[in-house]
Design goal:
It is a single chain. With about 375 residues, the protein is an alpha/beta fold. Helices cover about 40% and strands about 25% of the residues. The protein is built from 12 helices and 15 strands. Strands 1, 2, 3, 4, 5 and 11 form a 6-stranded mixed beta sheet that branches. β1, α4 and β2 form a beta-alpha-beta unit. α1 packs across α3, α2 runs antiparallel to α3 and α11 runs antiparallel to α12. The longest helix has about 35 residues. The structure holds prephenic acid. Prephenic acid (PRE) binds next to α1, α2 and α3.
């Protein structure tokens, strides 16, 4: 009983539900009013930019909207929970302006799809691709508006294939998403846990759950397959013919293939996180809290890396990541992938980039984009 005013009518279930009905109706009207505004925004964009080059999706604006939602939130719903609701509202509004086709490293049900949904919301057209370079090609050709690819995992390290693909691509990084990777042990609803004979998953996921599997399922055979989503599909297939096969996969795959969770969050490192990048054809304006990614090819001479890094120190620009990949052009030459806080149009960031251009043999700005909000 949370009634502080003794005179008021006591809270009863029917009264509370009436109140919820009335609030829902107001929320619904307001969401539609917002959607009509977004439709007008689309008209303005079309009028300003002409049919061809209209850019409907604005990552910097979306990041600002979500940050503001979190800043002004007073609860009882948590900041993230509230931002997720607005994430989906914006996703629906953008789909009214123009439905976005999002290519991602498939198949359906992968963690990359989970990241795509986290970033764009559910109102997008999903385009699962078989490989990372196919995601890039799909966006380059214009068949998809944006692409989502994994770039690093907190336990497994960088995804070299993604970094290498940036060398020859003209795509820009438009955003980043971080996704906590939670693995679950899944089976078909008709399968009894005691009967399970095989556990399927991607090799990396089996590795990320090794200690848990050793402890609870030491005698069950582990089978590595091409992706977690494929493992979930196989478990669902097996279940239909009464074979007791389990899969290790995430929430999206579980839902997609109608499986049930025998054990949730079975990963050995609970803070197992993967970072994904959004690639597209546009340069994103500053959002106020941004990151920039560069590809820098150093001259093959003593102190070359030192001279690159020194520019960051002097201009007080915060470098958040440095990866080294062998150059394909010269033997023992290296390419550096550098992330730093700031937008390439900021005064300090621009000063660093100018100096790098003088000191390195090649500098490519892969993109400036809002720091992940959710
Ligand atoms: O502000 C815009 O440019 C809009 O199109 C509106 C809106 C929104 O719903 O708030 C929708 C899509 C964009 O990606 C950003 C924001």
């Amino acid at each position: 009983m949370s009634n502080s005013n003794k005179q008021s009518v006591p809270d009863t279930l029917p009264l509370l539900r009436d109140r919820i009905d009335s609030i829902d109706s107001q929320i619904q009207s307001l969401i539609n009013e917002r959607a009509r505004c977004a439709q007008k925004v689309a008209d303005v964009k079309l009028a300003e930019q002409g049919d061809e080059a209209v850019v409907f999706y604005r990552p910097e604006r979306e990041a600002q909207v979500l940050r503001r939602v979190m800043e002004r939130n007073e609860g009882p719903l948590g900041n993230e929970e509230m931002a997720k609701i607005f994430r989906q509202v914006m996703s629906s509004c953008l789909a009214l302006e123009k439905p976005m086709r999002i290519a991602f490293l498939g198949p359906e049900g992968t963690f990359t799809q989970q990241a795509a949904i986290k970033h764009f919301g559910k109102s997008v057209i999903s385009a699962p691709m078989a490989a990372i370079d196919e995601v890039f090609r799909e966006v380059e050709s214009g068949a998809a508006n944006y692409g989502v690819v994994p770039v690093e995992n907190s336990t497994e390290g960088v995804v070299n294939h993604t970094l290498d693909t940036f060398r020859d691509s003209r795509l820009k990084i438009c955003g980043e998403v971080e996704e906590r990777i939670h693995h679950h042990l899944l089976v078909s609803p008709n399968i009894n846990a005691d009967d399970v004979t095989h556990i399927y998953s991607h090799q990396q996921s089996l590795a990320q759950c090794r200690a848990w599997l050793d402890r609870y399922w030491p005698h069950v055979e582990r089978v590595a397959v091409s992706s977690n989503a494929e493992a979930a599909r196989l478990a669902a297939d097996a279940g239909r013919s009464g074979r007791a096969v389990a899969a290790i996969a995430g929430d999206v795959a579980c839902e997609l293939y109608g499986l049930i969770t025998l054990s949730a969050n079975i990963e050995d490192h609970p803070d197992n996180t993967t970072r994904f990048l959004i690639v597209g054809n546009q340069e994103v304006p500053a959002s106020g809290k941004d990151k920039t990614s560069l590809l820098v090819s150093a001259k093959n001479e003593p102190g070359a890396l030192y001279r690159l890094l020194e520019a960051f120190e002097r201009h007080k620009v915060d470098m958040t990541r440095l990866e080294t990949r062998p150059s394909l052009m010269s033997r023992w030459g290296y390419i550096f992938y550098i992330d730093f806080l700031g937008h390439h149009s900021d005064e300090q960031s621009a000063a660093v980039i100018n100096e790098l251009c003088e000191r390195a043999s090649e500098v490519k700005v892969l993109g400036s984009y809002p720091i992940a909000v959710l």
